[in-house]
Specification:
By secondary structure, the protein is α/β, with parallel strands linked by helices. The chain has eight helices and seven strands.
Length: 240
């Protein structure tokens, strides 16, 4: 897909991977409408020339408000990038069951609800795309983040089924699977982290190349290991 001239709705576009995606899309000539929750970050992105919408996607009301704020404008590309993490590790302390609800909604329910709402206008475009950002953890879970991993695995499954449903239509469905990226969500994680810029550039390559998946960074290796032995891939990731 040539993104020049396309209108892109990018959720979670005021920081991290989303912010770099917004900048790279704009540099390629796309009009980017980005969402976020932090007012200061949205103001910063607005100063860079982006249209911004403040949206809390951790509940149905927030998603519906975003759709209303979009009005009737056409959308060529929907990128479901917004996501939340949540502490849920019984080895450290008893988790707060209520704390998981926002994570589950933002990571899984919100993309489904947005796709359902916006699919009619995507179908009206000559060429359109849906990009769902999951994670390498959708392939094999990390022991320390069971709820987050479950939401990403759920979105991966939904993306595959959606792609099959829309086969032959004008909408290309892409899944982006990042590794550990240096963002606010991973600030307390040690080890090597991919830069948001590099992650965004690899997702951009998948969009422009009309690929079904963007296996980013070390996820390429995880995919190979998983194709040889899913049990081995799982045993490696569950150590963390």
């Amino acid at each position: 897909m040539d993104v020049s001239g396309k209108t892109v709705l990018l959720t979670g576009g005021s920081a991290g991977i989303g912010r770099e995606l917004a900048r790279q899309l704009k540099a390629k000539g796309a009009k980017v409408i980005l969402t976020g929750r932090n007012v200061e970050r949205l103001d910063f992105m607005r100063a860079e020339g982006f249209e911004t919408i403040r949206a809390d996607l951790s509940n149905a009301d927030g998603v519906d408000a975003l759709v209303r704020d979009l009005g009737e404008r056409p959308i060529d590309v929907l990128i479901n990038n917004a996501g939340q993490g949540v502490d849920h590790d019984f080895r450290k302390a008893a988790p707060d069951a209520n704390a998981s609800d926002g994570c589950i909604y933002a990571n899984l329910n919100a993309p489904v609800r947005l796709i359902t709402a916006l699919l009619p206008r995507l179908r009206e475009r000559g060429e359109a795309a849906i990009v769902n950002v999951t994670s390498g953890l959708a392939i094999a879970p990390r022991a320390g983040s069971p709820v987050y991993c479950a939401t990403k695995a759920g979105l991966r499954s939904y993306t595959k089924a959606l792609r099959a449903q829309l086969k032959g239509e004008n909408i290309h469905v892409i899944e982006a699977l990042p590794p550990v990226v240096d963002t606010q969500m991973t600030a307390d994680r040690d080890g090597n982290k991919l830069s948001p810029q590099d992650c965004a550039s690899q997702i951009m390559a998948a969009i422009e190349g009309n690929r079904d998946e963007a296996n980013v960074g070390m996820v390429k290796i995880l995919r190979v290991v998983n194709s040889i032995s899913p049990k081995l891939a799982e045993s490696i990731m569950l150590r963390f």
